[in-house]
Design brief:
Chain B: It comes from Brevundimonas lenta. The complex is a heterodimer of chains A (123) and B (741). Chain A has 123 residues and is α/β, with parallel strands linked by helices. Chain A has 5 helices and 5 strands. Chain B is an alpha+beta fold and 741 residues long. Classes of the chains: A alpha/beta (123), B alpha+beta (741). At the A-B interface, α1, β2 and α4 of A face α1, α2, α7 and α10 of B.
């Protein structure tokens, strides 16, 4: 049974890239277009979602809001959340970690790194 | 097109949307609404362009977007004011960003490097202050403040790590690694799991895992969110230390981690942890058996709970329940395949849509034919056939409308290009202009949308260049220094109407008249209404600009605009109030697949004349018709004589023209503004007809633009008015005579 990844990004380009990379690695991908949509989609899909990947800068609700929402939901507080970030310095990673992120993916990502990161956190 | 190229195409589509949104939001900022949500939206737009550009390696675009974004980040953080000068710079930067996108897409030549560099400098000045050296500043995704995390409850009495200090082994090549790993509670809170880390290590080589639970307190002292377990992993693989560290990348600050090489010498040399008599859980590299480990981990936990704090270490305890649950999850009910959310749009090849439109056209015709046959059959009005036919007619119409709607697009795509044009023209002419748009969501056929851009561009330029006054002139006239140009679209009686109005000085009728006379376009003593004078500007070769400016083109005047509008089956009109401004109104059909036509009869044939060409229809009296040189007929129409063309004769339906007094004359105007009267036998009515290409089905015929099928099933030719008039004129010249001359 393939694992399911919920991708939350307001950019169609990014959503498509994530979808392409993840599907070709055998994951099932569900997409959401912003933080609010992301949490709603997560709620709707319940336990199906194995990993959440979220962008940070998004309208309506940003990536930190998504992490907070995931961690506040008893059903999903143990769901790994990876954030998409454009920088890789230590302070940023720490900021993501403090917010409750499980890990991160540095943009622009190559499909191998992306799938690697997902595999590392997916139970 | 492979998937990557498809995504790249998506990226450029998205860029167009982002750029449009960027501009719209910047205009909101320009209007003085500098709320944080708008600034954030501006930031996001540029950020997304940069993000995508990075993915496709579009470096020039990334570089420019980065500088742009850096300033926006300052504004977002409130460190720099979002004042008028800044917003103006941002607007120009958005134009250059659009140029970079176009260049990256290969749609435009190289970006004007000087302009781009100039803006980069301006943006950097705004970011770092005047003269300030550009500080190398990372763009900030998170708006973080560096922060060290104190984890208070972390004293580790039992873990004697100093003894792991092995200076003598530092230089020796590692045959493997000994990893001592003590997760903090926070690691689990972020959904990282020891088991997964062990699995990752297992991918690097054979691992031997041992667990020290000696620090785990008794049950009553146990804090569920904390962790006192210490894992020691021996990795028997000569991999790079970086590879080992990478495994712990996500958790390195949420754990105590020590990675030491297993030296070339015997592993016993390692002082390591005091021998705690830990049972070893051996696991082969490929199949690190998590569930076995978990099973081992769970049972003793209960033992421990019952008999707290034994002196000797018990094998394996599990005080961190959360990860255990999560690890167990995959073994539970397999998740059902989630249904992907239905996409809101699909992409369809345009040819398919056109084919559908064509077939629906046939359906409309067939339905009309059927209705006519049924009517001829003499069925009573209450018959089931007729009732059913009426329903069919409604459905047919609905299908037709729906199909047309597929091709319909909002005019927004054209309108949103205009603010930039207005800015540039305003800059060039030194005028201050505010563009107001309305009705961007008005929909019209895709082809019409595409062909609207040029005339609208031209008319906006004209409105600013010729219509609006300079700020000084405006102030002197008691107006606001900033001129307003309004661009609006609306639906009116089955057509789309585009209005372009300005609050400038209006048309100077004296001057227009003077120019028209000096160019020989009208007689010096011609009596013209105000409306007629205004319409003189549409005559070919008329240009009111005293000097040809860079802005409004070189000798290309409103006649070109009028021609391109007419080519779309549209009409253009003008109204102007001196001192108050002018309004140009374009009226266009919603689609090019259907035409408003006048159905006429000529020598037993049914023909269709496009309504957009027809100025007037009249029944000429014999005395109105004159013959120039004894054979070329002209007819007196208003102030002038216009050539009289007998359609049936020209088309070769018969040899002699219709007897004057019996036929009807359609006064038509060609695209070039020439007038002629087309003589036909009778007018049958006005209706919409579906255009069928003659070239596709037969071949091109001079004088015929296309064909259509009427309700009774007959084919009717649609007249090419321009060709007919030109053809008639090719015979010995009968130039348009001026009554006054």
């Amino acid at each position: 049974m393939s694992k399911t990844v919920l991708t939350v990004d307001d950019s169609r380009t990014m959503r498509d890239m994530l979808m392409m990379a993840l599907e070709s690695a055998g994951y099932t991908v569900i997409q959401a277009v912003d933080g609010v949509d992301g949490l709603e989609t997560l709620a709707a899909h319940g336990a199906d979602v194995d990993v959440v990947i979220t962008d940070i800068n998004m309208p309506r609700m940003d990536g930190f809001g998504v992490i907070e929402g995931v961690r506040a939901d008893p059903k999903h507080r143990q769901t790994p959340v990876l954030v998409l970030t454009t920088e890789s310095d230590a302070a940023k990673k720490q900021r993501a970690r403090d917010a409750g992120a499980t890990g991160w993916i540095v943009k622009p990502f190559d499909p191998v790194k992306l799938v690697d990161a997902v595999r590392r956190v997916a139970a | 097109m492979d998937a990557f190229e498809a995504i790249k195409a998506t990226f450029f589509q998205e860029c167009d949307e982002l750029l449009a949104d960027l501009e719209a939001k910047l205009l909101v900022l320009e209007s003085g609404q500098t709320d944080s949500e708008t600034i954030n939206a501006v930031f996001r737009a540029v950020h997304s362009v940069k993000g995508g550009a990075g993915a496709f390696g579009l470096e020039a675009l990334v570089r420019f977007a980065h500088v742009f974004e850096t300033l926006l980040d300052e504004l977002r953080a409130g460190r720099k004011p979002c004042d008028e000068i800044t917003v103006r710079t941002l607007l120009r930067a958005s134009d250059v960003l659009a140029d970079h996108v176009a260049a990256a897409q290969g749609h435009a030549p190289e970006v004007d490097e000087a302009r781009s560099a100039g803006l980069v400098a301006e943006l950097e000045t705004l970011t770092h202050g005047e003269g300030g050296a550009p500080v190398v500043e990372e763009e900030d995704d998170f708006g973080f403040t560096p922060l060290t995390i104190g984890l208070p409850s972390l004293d580790l009495p039992s873990l004697d790590l100093p003894s792991l200090d092995l200076p003598s082994l530092a230089a020796a090549p590692a045959t493997g690694w000994r990893i001592v790993f003590r997760p903090h509670g926070r690691m689990y809170a972020n959904a990282n799991e020891t088991g997964l880390l062990l699995r990752e290590l297992g991918r690097l080589g054979p691992v031997t895992v041992s667990l020290d639970d000696s620090a785990v307190p008794s049950l009553e002292e146990l804090i569920a969110e904390e962790n006192e377990l210490v894992w020691t992993i021996e990795l028997a693989a000569a991999v790079d230390e970086v590879a080992v560290r990478d495994v712990f990348d996500f958790v390195e600050s949420d754990c105590d981690l020590s990675i030491q090489p297993l030296g070339a010498g015997p592993a016993d040399d390692l002082p390591a942890l005091p021998d705690l008599g830990l049972p070893s859980l051996e696991a082969p590299a490929e199949a690190f058996d998590l569930s076995a480990l978990l099973a081992a981990a769970q049972e003793p936990a209960i033992v421990k709970a019952v008999a707290p704090a034994p002196v000797e270490p018990t094998p394996v305890a599990a005080p961190a329940p959360a990860p255990v649950q999560a690890q167990a999850a995959p073994a539970q009910a397999a998740p059902t395949a989630p249904t992907a959310p239905a996409p809101a749009t699909i992409r369809v090849d345009l040819d398919r849509v056109d084919r559908l439109i064509n077939v629906v056209g046939e359906l409309v015709i067939q339905q009309a034919m059927l209705a006519q046959r049924v009517a001829e059959s003499g069925l009573t009005r209450s018959s089931g056939v007729l009732m059913g036919l009426e329903d069919l007619e409604l459905l047919t119409r609905e299908i037709q409308d729906s199909v047309m709607a597929i091709r319909a697009q909002p005019v927004k795509s054209v309108f949103q290009r205009m603010p930039r044009l207005v800015r540039e023209v305003a800059d060039m002419t030194g005028k201050r202009v505010r563009l107001v748009t309305a009705g961007e969501d008005t929909e019209v056929d895709k082809t019409v949308v595409e062909r609207l851009a040029e005339p609208i561009t031209h008319m906006l330029r004209n409105a600013i260049d010729h219509g609006l006054e300079t700020p000084d002139e405006r102030l002197a006239a008691g107006k606001a220094a900033e001129g307003a140009v309004r661009l609006a679209a609306l639906h009116r009686s089955g057509r789309i109407v585009i209005e372009i109005s300005d609050d400038g000085k209006g048309i100077n009728r004296e001057r227009v008249r003077g120019i028209a006379v000096s160019r020989g376009l009208i007689a010096e003593d011609a009596v013209l209404t105000d409306e007629e004078v205004d319409n003189l500007i549409f005559l070919p070769g008329f240009s009111t600009a005293e000097t040809i400016t860079d802005v409004s083109g070189r000798g290309v005047g409103m006649d070109v605009v009028k021609r391109s509008i007419q080519a779309l089956g549209g009409r253009i009109s003008i109204s102007s109030v001196p001192g108050k401004g002018s309004t140009f109104t374009l009226s266009l059909p919603l689609t090019l697949a259907v035409l408003d036509g006048m159905v006429v009869g000529a020598a037993e044939q049914t023909l269709v004349a496009p309504l957009s060409n027809i100025v007037e229809s009249l029944t000429p009296r014999a005395q109105d018709i004159h013959y120039v040189g004894g054979r070329d007929a002209v007819i007196r129409f208003r102030e002038a004589f216009v050539p009289l063309v007998d359609v049936a004769q020209t088309m070769g339906f018969r040899d002699e023209p219709v007897t004057p007094g019996q036929g009807v004359a359609l006064v038509v105007e060609t695209e070039s503004g020439q007038r002629a009267a087309l003589m036909v036998d009778a007018i049958q009515g006005q209706r919409q007809v579906v255009i069928k290409s003659l070239e596709t089905n037969y071949q091109q015929v001079p004088g015929v633009a296309a064909a259509t099928i009427l309700g009774d099933g007959r084919v009717a030719l649609i007249l090419d008015v321009d060709a007919i008039v030109a053809n008639a004129r090719r015979r010995p010249a009968a130039p348009e005579l001026k009554l006054a001359s």
